[in-house]
Amino acid sequence: MWISRETAEDWFRYKGWKPSTSLIGWEKRNRYLLVKNGMAKILDDGGAHGRNAIYLASLGIYDVYLTDVNVYSLKMGKEKVLDKSKDKKKRIEIIQSDSKYHPFQNEVFDAIISHSLTHWLNNLEEVYQYLLDCYRILRPQGILFGMTFKEWRKVSEKFSRYPIFVNKETLKELIEKSGFDIVKIYEEVKGNKIAWFFEIKK
Length: 202
Ligand SMILES: C[S@@+](CC[C@H](N)C(=O)[O-])C[C@H]1O[C@@H](n2cnc3c(N)ncnc32)[C@H](O)[C@@H]1O
What we know:
Elements lengths: L4 H11 L5 H15 L4 E6 L5 H8 L3 E7 L2 H9 L12 E5 L12 E7 L8 H14 E15 L15 H10 L3 E10 L2 E9 L1
Parallel strand pairs: 1-2, 1-4, 2-3, 4-5
Antiparallel strand pairs: 5-7, 6-7
């Protein structure tokens, strides 16, 4: 459902270039850990037009990668100035891919941002496959910051398919089965939606 110009444009209209406030907070809390050994390599996974990747790259302290299955979203990101930046430190590597099978070698990333991605996969087996592949591409001690839905109080009719909603037990089970340690899982209410945020570690 995501691979179309229409969904790319809808999402862009909805979020624009403003990064998510939760990502800003997470980055600030983890900056010391991430950069203590030099520039950390971060993947904005399912990052659409790259509002979060662009924010991270603008800090000039991360080597940022952006992936998404929707080529139309990525094209918007590509047109944004940071991708063409002469300042190598602020450049973003943009790659179209299905995040269940990332096109990366094992153990190359220090961190993965998975913001509002997993609930758009088709089922829980796919979420498990996704987490397994994240585990594969993270370095030992690498961290993943994720957000997925617990429930919507009112499901938008705009979508042709409902997202996958998970309860805490299921989310914990999937995370641990894929090899990760849980740092924390917490709930946040965002308007009529309730989201799980999860910080997990290889
Ligand atoms: C709700 S948007 C979130 C975008 C971005 N993370 C943000 O917070 O702005 C979900 C994104 O996940 C992407 N997506 C869905 N399934 C995917 C998959 N299997 N592999 C990679 N990206 C996927 C969609 O194309 C879409 O851009």
